[in-house]
Structures are given as C-alpha cells and as structure tokens.
# Entry
Amino acid sequence: MTAWAVDQASLGELVDAGLTSIEEAMYQATSSEVEVLRDASRHILSAGGKRIRPRLLLLSYLALGGNDLERVAKPAAAVELMHTASVVHDDINDHGIVRRGRPSVNSIWGRTFALLTGDFLFTAVYELMAPYQHLNVDLARAATALVEGETLQASAVKDKIFTRDIYMRIIALKTAALFRAAGTIGAKLANGSSDAVAALSSFGFNLGMAFQIVDDILDLVADESTLGKSTGIDLEQGRGVAVALNDAGNSSSNGRHDIADPMDQIKRRLLEGNTIAEAREQAELLVQDAIVQLSVIPNSHYKEELVGLANLVIERDY
Amino acid sequence: MTAWAVDQASLGELVDAGLTSIEEAMYQATSSEVEVLRDASRHILSAGGKRIRPRLLLLSYLALGGNDLERVAKPAAAVELMHTASVVHDDINDHGIVRRGRPSVNSIWGRTFALLTGDFLFTAVYELMAPYQHLNVDLARAATALVEGETLQASAVKDKIFTRDIYMRIIALKTAALFRAAGTIGAKLANGSSDAVAALSSFGFNLGMAFQIVDDILDLVADESTLGKSTGIDLEQGRGVAVALNDAGNSSSNGRHDIADPMDQIKRRLLEGNTIAEAREQAELLVQDAIVQLSVIPNSHYKEELVGLANLVIERDY
# Structure
C-alpha cells in the first residue's frame, strides 16, 4: 500500500468515526425514561435515512481543518434530529404510512403519540444545542424557517395556488435553510474565516434546493419500495415541483390547478412532457453552483467528499 | 399620599411595565411573514390567559434585586410561549374546542395548521432563548419534561392505569418542571446566590404542582364559561386528579378504572365524596411548602407578590 493510499484510508476513517459519533449522540439524546418516546424516536432513527445533513455539517467542519469529533457530533446530531422531528409531524399531516422503508410513527403508535414524538425530537434538539449559544442561533432560525416552509406549503395546497415562485420559496424555507445551517455550523465550529463560512453556507443552501427538487421528482417517478416512503403524495395533494413547473408552463392557469383533474391523467402528462427533465436540469445547475462556491476552500480529501455529496444529491434514485 | 404609598405604587409599576415588555416580546417573537402562523399564534396569545409562568419568572428576578426589564422580558416570554405551544398541541389531541374563552386554534384553522402553529411556537422559544446559553439549558430540560409528562399521561389513559403515583409524576413533568424553570431562570438572571436560586426553583416547582391539582379540580367542578376552556375532558379521558385520588381510595382497583362506567355516575360519586376536598388540601399544603422556601429571600414588595401569586393559585376559580 502506498503512503498516499494509507493517508486516504485514514481520512475516510475520520469521516466514518464522525458518523458513528453522530449516531451515538442521537441515540443518547433520545434516551427518555418514557418508553413510547424512546421507542418511537429510535424506531425512526434506526431505520437509517441518508444522513445527508449531518454528513454535510461534518464534512464542512473537517474541510476547514476541524478534527475534534466529540465537538462536532452533537450539533450534527441536532441537525438530523430536527429533520426527523419534521418528518414525524409531516407524516401525521400527510397520512404517510411508510417512511425509511418502515411503517411511519403515526401508523404504529397513532396520531397522538406521533405528535408527541415529534415534539420530543424538537426538544431533544433544543437540549443538545442549548450550550452552543451562537451556533444555536443559526439552528434556531433554520428550525423556524422549516416550520414556515411546511406551513406555506399547506397554505398553497389549501388555496390551490402553487406557482414556481411559491414553490421555490417553500423549498428554500422547508429544506434549504436547514442545509445552509449545517454548512454554516460546521464551518463556524472549525473557526473558518468569514469567507469560508459564507461559502459553506451557500454550498449548503444550493445543495438543499437541489435535494428537494430531486426529492419531489422521485416522489413522482420512483416506486415506494425503492424510495422507502409513501410516494405520489405531492401530486395527490396538488403540490411539489411537477405541479409548480407544470402550472408555470401554462400561464393562463395562473398557478391554480383543477384538483378534480383525474390523477392518472395529470401524472401521464407530467411524465410525457418536459416538466421532469426541466426540473432535473434546474437541480443540476444548483449543484454546479454549489460546487463553484467551494473554490475559496483549500483542496483536501474532505472538499472532494463535499463535491461527491453534491453529485450524489442529483444522481440518487432513492 | 405618604412616601410609603408612593414607593409601593412605583414598585407595582415596575411589575406592570415588566409584564408589558413580556407581551411585546411575545408579539415580536411571533411576527412571522407566514400569515397563518402569525394569526393563529396571536389569536391564542391575545386571548390573554393568566400569565402565571412569566409573572413567576419576573417576580423571582425582581425579588433578588434584578431591575433590567429588557433583560428579563425575553426569557419570560419564552416560558409563556412554551406553555402556549403545548396548549395548542394538547387541544389537537384532546379535541378541545374552547381555549381562553375563544375557539381553539384547531377548531378555527384545522388540525394541520394547529400542529404547525404549535411547532412554530416551539421554534419561537428556541430562537428567543438561543443567545442565553446556561439559562437555555434550564428551559430546554423543562421543555423535554413537559413533552414527557404529556406522553406519560396519554400512555396512562391508554393503558387505563392512573394511580396517585403516576398522577404525581405526570404533573411534576408536564407542569411543575416549567414552573421550576421560571423560578430558576428569574433567580439566575438576577445573579442570585445558589441558595436563592434553589429556593426559587423549589418555590416554582411546588407552585406548579399545586397549580395543576387545582386546574384538574376546576376541570371537574367549574363551568366552561367561567373557565374559558373545554371542561370535563379529564374525566372523559379517564385521567386527572379526581381519577387518580378516586382510584387510590379504592385500592382493590389497583388504578385500573372501568371507562365503561357512565360518566355522570363517576362525576356524582366524586363530587359527593371527599376526593375533591382531599385534592384541594394537598394543593394547599404544597403552597404552604412553597411559601416556606421563600424564607431565605430578603423581605420585599416582590417577595410579598410571590406569596400573593402562590395564594392566588389555590384561591382562583378560573
């Protein structure tokens, strides 16, 4: 084995060790004495998930020279728990029954306990981050943005107005804000320069936008067993990237769509037209833009992993 | 007007000014650009409520010599918003339709938006407290306890096991922990000695226990228009102080109660027997105990107001 290969291997090991510490921190943070909260939290956590947000935080930290895995584990765990809390509450509102390849919390424990489990995951984030002060401000803002984005989405569905502009605003709030916070917090934890912090914040934001667009495409085209969650919810509820882009292409509709339109017909039209190809192109542009941001960061193994993460976001099929 | 009277008046004015600052901080913290969140939050906030938790925090602060109303307003607002968040989520789970004399958030905006409004109030707390670090740890723990208490209660109802011990554990978590945090945070903000902080923490905890017992009695005996919220929910759901004490008096039942028992019959039995008198006596003992804790605090107008607050908790009929 060459010296270079050894070096690459040990760099990779630091990432793996970091991810393990993050899992432990999440496990620890959900060790309630109240059985239902512990069981339901760990049910969804142990199902896995892509862990893309904590990975983004960890790599941002390592790419700027951070090397204290204990220090980075709790904020990274908090970011993933925040996402998980929102997922548990989403599944109540959307009646989602499959999540991460398993029955959703509400489908096993019922709505009351799912609501409380989501609340508990929120308060676990709050407890984990309470000692961090300035970093905590970044995550707290992202938490509010997330809830605002979910609410805007529910309002748009209710009012049957789902334009491209509204769609972009929704995904910026509900998804990209938390990705941005992950980049920001990782960079700040490593005491990065203000340029480096701005670059990783912006990288995170663009990545989050691309991630959500791809997620919405997958909701439409993937099947449930590959994706590991209930699919077709966006279309059923009259939202998501396809609905937004489809309406944008038909300006006379002014974003209002006829939900009485049979779903099969809408779906066929979306899959036949350019809508999905256009959305994918937009996601690719966002990822290219994200990668450009990294030019101010010194080259390193971790920078390469950040680029790999960005590419994974658009190449994934789950 | 004597000098003493002037003095008393100006002391009272400081409390009033503090309460006004707290209202402003809550209003500010809920200034989302997302209409539903702002409207629903302010709907419930502007309905009033007793504001007993922020008052406890404010008086604890003033009693230990604190005098910076700007400094105390945000944490006090956070404590009230945390309580409000839990109330909004409670009303979803309990199908409560009246709260603070108004239609509940879920009855106006529906379940989806009520869930998101509760989440938003949680994240507003998180944002408000993010800069406070050590105090934030106290509030974060109380937030987790609150959710744990609500969950234990829902579990006890589901399992039909509602003993006196379980009841005391539930109210310690769901109510007294936040009251304790209010006392602790007020005292710490005023840079109180560790004895003073411990005294006000303990005062808050006992007050919270008494408050919840009285709340549960009122749920049983008060009418809806006086109380300003849906009544009889505890009994209907097989929980609350009366159910706990009633079971304790009948040891053979081992805390299991027959929910098929017609509600009218249970209610009559409870109102005729000693159950409510016993519960009220317990609340009075807790308040006496709370007041004893204050002996380590120097005498002042604010200490008298704390005693007044404690007495109000057991004397109130709403």
Summary: Chain B touches chain A through 45 residues (CB under 8 Å). Chain B is about 75% helix and 0% strand. Chain B has a mean pLDDT of 87. The beta strands of chain B are 98-99, 102-103.
